[in-house]
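Ticket #4471: structure output looks truncated?

Reporter: J.K.
Steps to reproduce: submitted the chain below (396 residues) through the standard prediction queue, then opened the result file.
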Amino acid sequence: MKYKENWEETKKKFYGWWNQCNTGRPLMKVIARSPEIEGLTDGKPADGGYEQVFCQGKYYNMPEELMWKDMEDKYMDPERMVLRYRSFCENHLFLGESFPNMETHFGPGSTAGYLGSEIKFKEDTIWFEPCIDEDTDWEDVPELKFDPENAWFKKHLEVVAGCRKYAGDDFCLDMPDLMENVDVLSSLRGAQPLMMDMIEDPDSIAERVEQVTKAYFPIYDAFYDLVKGPEGGNSYSCFQIWAPGRMAKLQCDASAMMSTEFFNEFVWESLKQQTEKLDYAMYHLDGPGAIRHLDKLMEIPGINALQWTPGDAGPDGTYEEWDKIYDKVIAAGKSLWIKVYSGDLEDWIRNCDRLVKKYGSSSIMFYYPEMSLTDAQRLLSYAEENWSDVKGTFNA
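Returned output as attached by the reporter:
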């Protein structure tokens, strides 16, 4: 792999993290700006997020002709997409367990597009237009069956195949954010009508979740064949994770609006079935309303790790209040993915220090914002000295 010096060591660390046996310090996603571009930044992550950095060259001198001009250019021109990402790689250092991996997505939840929704692209978001009218009875809706001739699916495969052609093996191409179960149905039907359907017509919703679950793996397999590495591993971009086999991020954001009874009835079995066809799975738990389902989620053997999203507007994943979540994850023998962004570098070190001392170093991954090389070196040096092979004080 180009742009990553310790890729073999990084893969071993990821294997250890997925299996709760990582040695040395915790996994740490640390991307540093090269010294040559440091003068172009105010020392903080770019407003607008990661895509503003690697797509529009914010904080480094990407040639203006490479910046995306329209939605076709941004999402569907493989050659230019790869050129933009190469420009980012050439101006940044992938330290710790960060690694070069390029997004190839058509939005979060693109399975909805392959089952009938129209995909709409904007500068800062992608969404899916509901295609099942809320006044239509489910008995009048055809089976949700994946069609490999679906225009959006064929276009997306074409884009990913093109990215592979231009990227070669220089960096990972990421598994698109396909999504599953009720979240896909929500895009097809609309969130509020679907919640009412669960109350008024639960049998139909259970049947439709089964159809989405059945459609998932033909879609997954088609993309996996394009993005997998030489040894069969694959990566997932939003959370910067890699696994030595078939891996996916799973979720049900709609669960924040559901009772535990509805979650158990409509979602849990679908998730379990997915994990049985994967080698590794990380669950994305999003929002306070979803916490009520944590105990049931931890019963799924095939969930190897959990990522908790409290919301970027509030405190980050190191906030002590979130220990009520982490206690259950570690007690269940699973790993933690923790996003760190509140405060400055000294706050990051202090807050992560607390977590490592409590939970140990074998099952934690920390995800940090882009930073200067000076800060990255201080952070990694502190971690090597203080966070290596820590047992942790937590007892389930």
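Triage note (M.O.): checked the attachment and the full token line is present. The chain has a mean pLDDT of 95.
Status: closed, working as intended.
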